[in-house]
UniProtKB/TrEMBL annotation:
Pfam families: DUF896. This is UPF0291 protein P0Y55_07150. The keyword Cytoplasm applies. One of its GO terms (cellular component) is cytoplasm. Belongs to the UPF0291 family.
């Protein structure tokens, strides 16, 4: 399965969720949904890790403001 942009991924997951609630999903659609969820979680984890890696810790005490 091809990699989708995050917006496209969310849109397709939501389409499958709506269809699942209305009429149910075929076996192929269930497999697609599971794969899309994996991609979404992997993207989320990578983005979150990148944000955490950008954090810089310093030992300086913040100035006291009165």
């Amino acid at each position: 399965m091809e990699k989708l942009a995050m917006d496209q991924l969310i849109q397709r997951i939501n389409e499958l969720a709506r269809k699942s609630k209305k009429v149910g999903l075929t076996a192929d659609e269930i497999a697609e949904r599971d794969e899309l969820r994996k991609q979404y979680l992997n993207n989320f984890k990578l983005n979150f890790r990148e944000q955490l890696d950008q954090i810089e810790f310093t030992d300086e005490k913040p100035p006291i403001v009165h």
